[in-house]
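Researcher: Structure for this, please.
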Amino acid sequence: TSSRQLEKLYASASNAVVFVAVPAFTVMAVSSPVISIFFLGRTAPEFIQFAVLLSLGWFLSTLSAIPFIFRLGTGELRWNTVVQVTIACLNVVLGILFGNLFGGSGVVLAWVCALSLGSLLGLYTFHRESNSSAVPLLTADNYALTASACVAGVSALLVYRGALRPTVASDAMRGGVAGVGRLAGWCGESGGV
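Model: Predicted structure, token format:
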């Protein structure tokens, strides 16, 4: 397989991951109050806070999955190992530090920081070594999708915090969903994801 084919495969795989991960993790974060009610029988602010933080951390980890798999496929395991050891070490150090400072919330924050920083390290080193930019993650399709997800997420957060009337938020979220729908239709027509 040529270098050009690998670049094209990487761009396509990255686009697919972003296309699925952005709405999936947004839905997880936005629906955390409902999930809290379903599992706990009430709206638990700690549960919602942890769900949102963990959604962010696992989103970044998901973005780094493609470089991780590419390295496995090419047998270049050094950076995969460094990333995993970095996540583990940061988790221990930050877990102790943040746990002592902030209690249980600090431990969750430490894990999210360790996972996010390790994942970003994996992405950064992959792009640096392959002399490529993060362009596959930042296509025009992904900008529209991410913007729609951000509008939906911020609207839901504002409704949850009581700072926005549900009708205004639902209009904003409906617009975001319509934008995602248009984007999905456009991708299907253009042979995208």
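Researcher: Any notable elements?
Model: Residues 3-30 form the longest helix (28 residues). DSSP finds eight helices and no strands in the chain.
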